[in-house]
Amino acid sequence: MSLRRAAGVRIGDILLTIVAWLFFIAAAVLEVGGDAIIRKGLWGKNLVLICLGAAMLAFYGVAVNMVRWDFSRLLGVYVAVFATVAVLFGRFIFKEQIPASTWLGLSVIITGGLIIQFGPNVKL
What we know:
By secondary structure, this protein is an all-alpha fold. It is built from 5 helices and no strands. The chain has one domain (3-118).
């Protein structure tokens, strides 16, 4: 019996998980970026930016749903990725000063996403 089989881990499962996380990151960038562009378009009264942001939001919906997981797990884990990208956009794109309470809350959200992703699959 190989070490991989004894540990219950298959390389294909790991690769699928990595691909899922890449889809989540792409979806989060599309969603946060789309929201940011719509915000800029609304404040600047620019219909082209509003439409571009709306298109990005539509593509986010497609990207996040490309992952073939149970819906509750899919969105539970995605929320953690989205929250992380949103806070990082605020900090580095919009140059916001992020309060410690937001970082703490983000750590709680990320912990929840990790529990959903890697916790045992016990059905209630």
